[in-house]
Amino acid sequence: MGDQNTVAVYTPPAERPYPGPHWITEKIGSLVLTPHTPIEWIVVFGAVFTGTLVLLFAIVWLLYSGIGIWGVNIPVAWGFAIVNFVWWIGIGHAGTLISAILLLLHQAWRQSINRFAEAMTLFAVTCAGLFPLIHLGRPWFFYWIAPYPNTMGLWPQWRSPLVWDMFAVGTYFTISLVFWYIGLIPDLATFRDRAKHRLTQVVYGMMAMGWRGSAYHWQQYEEAYLLLAGLATPLVVSVHTVVSFDFTIAIIPGWHSTIFPPYFVAGAIYSGFAMVLTLAIPLRKIYRLQEFITMRHLDNMAKLMLATGIIVTYSYIDEAFIAFYSGNPYERYEIVNRLFGLYGWMYWLLVATNLVIPQLMWSSRARKSVAAIFLVALSVDLGMWLERFVIVVVSLHRDFLPSAWNMYYATIWDWATLLGSIALFVTLFLLFFRFLPPISIFEMKKILHKPEVSARA
Amino acid sequence: MEHRRDLPIQWRSLDPKTPDPRAPMPSQLGDVNRREFLSLMAASLALAGVEGCTPAATLPEKIVPYVQAPEDVLPGRPLHFATAMPFAGYGVGLIVKSHEGRPIKVEGNPRHSASLGATDVFAQASILDLYDPDRAKSVTNRGAISTFGAFVSALSPRLEELQSRDGAGLRFLSGRITSPSEGALIDAILRRFPKADWHQYEPVNDDNARAGSRMAFGRYVDSVYHLDRADVIVSLDSDFLYWGPAHLRHTRDFAARRVFNPADGSGRGMNRLYVLESTPTVTGFKADHRISMSPSKIGELTTAIASRLGVAGAPGQELNEQWFEPMMRDLKSHGSSSIVIAGETQPPFVHALVHAINEKLGNTGHTVEYMEPVEMRPVEQFASLRELAQAMQSGQVDTLIMLDVNPSYSAPADLEFSKNLENVKLRVSHSLYYDETAAACHWHVPKHHYLETWGDVRAYDGSVSIVQPLIVPLYETKSSHEFLSIFLGNPTRSNYDLVREFWVGQYKGEEFESFWEQSLQEGVVQNIALSDPLPASLEASPYRARASRPASPLTRGRITSTTAWTYSPPREGETASAASGGGQFRTPQAPPGPGNLDVLFRPDASVYDGSFANNAWLQELQHPLTHLTWDNAVLIGPKTAHDLHANSEDMVDLVVNGRQITGAVWVIPGQPENVVTVHLGWGRKVSGRNGMERGFNAYALRTSDNPWHATGGRIRKRGEKYKLATTRDHHVTEGRHMVRHMTVDDYAKDAGLIQRETHQPKPDQTMYPAYENIDYAWGMSVDLSRCVGCNACIVACQAENNVPTVGKNEVARGREMHWMRIDTYFEGPAAEPDAYFQPMFCQHCETAPCEYVCPVEATTHSAEGINEMTYNRCIGTRYCSNNCPYKVRRFNFFQYAAWDIPSLKLLYNPDVTVRSRGVMEKCTYCIQRINRTRIDALKADRKIQDGEVLTACQQACPANALVFGNLLDENSRVRKLKSEPRNYGVLAEYNTRPRTTYLAALKNPNPEIAGFETAQHNNG
Lengths: 457, 1020
Hints:
The structure holds two protein chains of two kinds.
Chain A: H1 2-9, H2 21-32, H3 39-65, H4 80-104, H5 111-134, H6 161-194, H7 198-208, H8 215-248, H9 260-286, H10 295-326, H11 329-340, H12 344-356, H13 364-368, H14 370-397, H15 412-435, H16 441-449
Helix pairs in contact in A: 2-16, 3-15, 4-5, 4-8, 4-9, 4-14, 5-6, 5-9, 5-15, 6-7, 6-8, 8-9, 9-10, 9-14, 10-11, 11-12, 12-14
Chain B: H1 34-53, E1 79-87, E2 90-99, E3 102-108, H2 121-130, E4 140-141, E5 144-145, H3 148-164, E6 170-174, H4 180-192, E7 197-200, H5 207-217, E8 222-225, E9 232-236, H6 247-256, E10 272-277, H7 282-286, E11 289-292, H8 295-309, H9 324-333, E12 338-342, H10 348-361, E13 368-371, H11 381-393, E14 399-403, H12 407-410, H13 417-421, E15 426-431, H14 436-440, E16 443-446, E17 455-458, E18 464-467, H15 480-486, H16 495-506, H17 512-522, E19 597-602, H18 616-620, E20 628-629, E21 634-636, H19 638-644, E22 650-656, E23 659-667, E24 675-679, E25 709-721, E26 725-726, E27 741-743, H20 744-749, H21 753-757, E28 778-783, H22 792-800, H23 808-813, E29 821-827, E30 834-840, E31 859-861, E32 867-869, H24 879-883, E33 890-891, H25 902-905, E34 920-921, H26 927-939, H27 952-956, E35 962-966, H28 973-978, E36 983-984, E37 996-999, E38 1001-1003
Parallel strand pairs in B: 6-7, 6-14, 9-10, 9-12, 10-11, 14-15, 15-16, 19-24, 21-23, 27-38, 28-37
Antiparallel strand pairs in B: 1-2, 2-3, 4-5, 4-16, 8-13, 17-18, 19-25, 20-26, 22-23, 22-25, 28-35, 29-30, 31-32, 33-34, 36-37
Helix pairs in contact in B: 2-22, 4-15, 5-10, 8-10
C-alpha cells in the first residue's frame, strides 16, 4: 500500500530524473514568494472581493432592517441562512477527514492535498459561522447562547441543539485552525528563510514562531500533530451529527428522523470531497501542480465521493421507506409533498445532481477524465445545497395544520448573502494561495525525498 | 405621572441645587459684604431667568405626581366606564377600560341587551379609530385649516337668511338616528326651519324590511327575534349572526342552543338551522343545511313556503327540491318554536311573506315579536336620498348639511350624487374623517369619536344608553349635538349640557341625579316614567310612514300583542318600495348565466360600508371566509370560474348595466353558479394612509333601485394579475382531524367516539416528570359548536396585547402578527361545502415542543401551566416557531410595532410589553389579567374564583365559545367542559398535552334529508 502510494505520487519520466527536494521548495515556494502577482489572480480576486463587499453590504442592511428582508415567514422561519450554514459546515468536513483521518490511516497520498483541504475547511467553517449569527432576530445578543457569567444569572438552555451547535462548530473551528496552523509552521519557516525582502522575512518569521527544524522540534511537532489529528478525527463525525440534531430533535415530519446523523455525516463528506475536487482541479491546472496532485489523487477522491454518495442515496431511500412504513399520515404526506409538491422540481433536480450524475464515477474511464470528475463535483456541490433546502424549507412549509401552510420565496437579499458567502470563500482562498503554501512543502519532501522508502507519516 | 407645564417658570426645576432667588442666602458663604451680596443676588436671579430662557430640551424636566389627584385615579390601576357605541345608528353597550384618563380596551356591557358582555370586530377596533393619526383634527374650509368660530361666523348670515324664508332650500342629510336627544334637536331644527327637510341615508340600510313591514302591516315595525326559543330556524339570505343591530344577541342565543351534553340530558335540545342563501356567509356555514341559490330563487322559495302554509294571497308555487318537504315538515312540527328570518337583501315582498309565514306557524309572539321602530325618524332611505338628489339636480337645494354620511363615495351610482352636489351653494359636512364628501364640501367640521362624546343611543330593542366620554377630545372636534345646536342659534352650548338638559326634561321622577348616575354607571337607562317626546314633524311625503308615530320611544321597546298586526296581502297595484326589484311576488328575471351574472352587493366584514377603511386592525383582519386582507375581490364560485377561465387574482372588468369597475377575482367555494359577490367599502379615494386606494369601489356599480342584487352582469378578463394577500390559503383538511365534528344523533348514540379516536398517549409516556401545579392550573376550552367565526376574538386579542399590524405586503409574505387566528376548513364538494371554524392560538402544551429548543430559555413553563414568553431574553433564532406543530408563534421580522406615532402610543396597554424587532411573541392566556387578578385575590386573602379572570378573547366572544379557567377548581366551568365526551386536543397524538382543548362541533341535520351534504362524522 505504501509502495503504491509513493510510486503514485511522482513518476519521474525516464529522461528527467527526480531533481531533488529543492525542486519542491522552488516549485511551491515560487507560487508565494514572488513579488509578481499573476494578473489572473488580480482579476479574479477583484471580482470575488467585490462579491465579498456585496456580502458585507447585505449583512449591514440585514442588521439595520431586520430579518424581514429575507424570504422567511411563519411557518418557514428558516430559509437560505440555515441551508447555507449546513451546506458550508458539511463542505468543511472533507478537509478534516483528509487531514486527520487519512493521516491516522496512513494514507500518504493525502499529503499533496491536505493543506489546501484544511484551508478549505477553515474558510468553509468561517462562512458557515456567519449564518447562525446573522440569522438571529437580535444578533447583538448572540453571546447569550454561550455559558458565561452574567448578571441575569442564566445558563444557556442545555437541551437546545443550537447550544450544542455552538460548542460543536466552535470546537470545530478552533481545532481546525490550530491543526492547520501547526501544520503550516515548518513551511512558514522555509519561507522565512527564503524570503528576499525584510518585511516578508519578519512577517513569516513571526508566524513561524521560531521554528529551527531541529530534531527536537520535529519530534515535538510529530507528537503534536498526531494529537491534534486524534482530536480532529471524532469531529468529522460529531460536528455534523450535532448539526443534524438541529433537525432530528424537532418534531416536524421530514426532520424528526433518526437516520439524520449518519446521513448528514456522509452527506458532509460527500459535499466536502466535491468541493475539494472543485478547488483542486482548477488549482492543479492553473498552477501546474499536476505532479503533486495526480490522477491517482483525483481517482481516490472520486471513489470516496462515490462511496459517500451511495450512503446518501441509501438514506434517501430509507427516509421515504420509513415514512410509509410508519403509517404516520403526516410523515407520509411529507414525503409525497417532497416528491410531488410545489417544490417537487427541486427534489428531482436533487436526485439528478446528487444521485444520478455521480454514478458516472463507477466507470474507471470517467475517473480518468478530469472534466468528468469536475462535472460530477460541481453537480454534487449543487445537489448537496438542494438537499439542505429540501430538508429545511420543504418540511417547514407544509407540516401539521394545513391552515399554517405557506410558501417560501427567496428574496434578492437571500441570494446576495448566499453568493456573497461563496465570494468570501473564494476570496479567502485566493488570499491563502497568494500568501501561504497551498501544498505542504515539507510533507511532499518527506515522500519524494526517499522514494524507495514507503512513506509513513 | 404628569408633567406640569402650567406652573410659573421659576418652579420649573425643583432641583435643590439651583438657588431659589427668594430663598435666604446660605450662611456657608460666610462673611459677605454688601457689594458681593448684591452681585450674588443678581447672579441668582440671572440664573433663574436664564433657566426660563433656555430651550426646554436642555432643562431637566421634572415630573410630579398629582397634587390633587382626580377622583379614583390610581396610576397603574385601570378604571372601567360604561358607554355605548353607535354602529350605523344603533347602540351597543360597552364597558371601556381606561388607564390614567385614556381608554385602551373596549368590552361589552353585560347589562346591555345588544351586547350581553360581548363585542364584535367593529366595537373592538373602534378604539383604534379614536387614536387614528389620520382623523380629522380641525375644521377645514375648502381643505384649508380653519376654526369652529370661523365656520359659525360664515354660516350665521346664511342661517339668518334661510330663516327668513322658513328654511326653504335647506336640507340635512344624516345617517340613521336613534338618539333621542339628537332626535329632539332635529325636531327643534325642523320647527325653526319648517320648509327644510331631513334626509337619511345609510349605504347598508333596512329599506326592504321597512317596505315589507309596510306591505304586511300597513306601518313600519321592527322585528325582534328570540332565537333562544327557536328549535328550527330558517334563514332566507339573512346573515343574522354577523349583521344587524341585534347580531351579538342572536349569536349568544343561537350558540347557546348548539350544545348538547348527553350526561345531563337537560336543556331543550339542539336547534336546527336551515340557511338558504345566495352567497356564502358566516351564518350559512353554521347551518345544518345550507343551500345556495341565486337571490331570485330565494324569492320563489319564500312564495312556495307561504303557499304551502296557506298564506292568503300567496300564489301557488311548487318547488321540486328534495329538501323542501322535510324542511316544511320540520317547520310545521315546530310551530311557535320555529322562526323564518328574511335577509335585508331580499325584496320587500319576501319580508312581507315571511311575516305571514311566521304568523301562520304561530311564531309571532314567541320567537318573533314586533315593536315600534327604534329610529327617531324611520324612512326608506334610498328613496330619501333619491329625493334629495333630484332636488339638488333641479336646483332646489342651496344649503346642504351632511352629518355622518359619505354620499360622495357611497351613494348609488344612478343618483349621480357628486354631480348634483355641485349645484348646492353651501355644502357642509360633519364626520369623523376627512373623506370624499368632506373634500366636496365647503366646510368640514370634524366630529368627536364616540369615546370622546356625550350622547345617547338606542339598541335594537329600544333600550337607551347614555354615551359618556372616556377622554377629553384629542383634537378640535365637535359632537353632533354641538354641531346641531348651531342651527338652533346656540353654537356655544356644551355637549354635556345639551344631553343632560334633554334628560332632565324627560325624567319625571324626583331624584334626577341618582337616575343620571345610575344610568351612567350601568350603561342602560332603566324603564322609568318619561314624559312624552316632542312631536315629530310629519309631512305627506310618499315615502314616509303613514302610520302613527312612535308612542313612547324612550322606554325599552314595548312589545305589542300580535293582534294589532295581522298580515294582509298587498292590494293589487300598490307599488312596493322603490328599493325593491318591483313586482309583487315575482321578480321576473332571465335565469342567470355566464353572460348574465347576478351581481350581489354586500357590506364588508371588515370595513362595513367604508367607514372603517382607515382602521388598520380591520384592514388586516382576514375575511371570515376568503381570508383576504387589505383588499376586496370579485367573488365567484368554482364552476363559474371554470366557465369563465378565470382564476383567483386575475384582474377583470365587471360590467353591470353599462357601468364598469375593475377588480381582482377570488374563487370561493359555496358560491352559487353565475352569481358574483362584491363587497362595499373599498376603493376609497380620500382616506387615511390605510384606506387610500385599497381594493375596488363597488358603489360605482350599485343603483338605488337594485342596491343588493343587480342582474345582467358580465365579466371580462383583462389578462393582468393582482396580488391579493390572504392569511391562509389552504382550507382543506387533507384528511387530518384537527377539526372534529359529528351529528348530534351520532353523538347521542356513541358519545365516546371522539375520545377513542383521539390517540392521546398515556401520561407516563414522557421522559420528564410532569409539572406540579399547586394553586392554579390554567386551561381553556373552545367549543367549535358555538364558534361562528365572527373574528371578534382576534381583534380583542390584538387590542389587549398590543399586537402590531404589518401591512399588505407582509401579510402576503406570511408574516401577519395575530396571536389568534380562525382557521376555516371546507369539507365536501367545492360547490356546496361544509365549513368549520377553529380558533387557533397557543395551546400552552404541558410538554411544549417550543420550550426545549430555545437556546436561551426565552420560552419557559410557569408553575401554573402557562407557556411563558420572555421577550427580553429572546434572540430570535425562531427554532420555537419551527417546532411548534400548531404554528401559533409570531415573529417580528421587522420593527412592526409603531414606536413613533404619538397618538398610537396612547393606545398601548401598559400591562403588556410592546415588542421590538427580532422577538417572538404568542398568546399568553392574557397573563397580565391573571396577574392582576391574582394580586387582587392575594390582597383579599383568597384564591381566584372561577370567572374572575376573563381572557380578552373570552370576554369578546358573543357565542361564549371560549372558556378559560382553573383546572384545579372542581367547580370551574372549564373543567366541566373538558370532562364532556366531545372534548379533544388537536394533535394530541404527538403528546404535546395542550391545555387548550376543543369541543367537537355538533351538527343537527334533518334525518329525512338524505344524500345531502350534511356533517357526517369524519372517519379516521
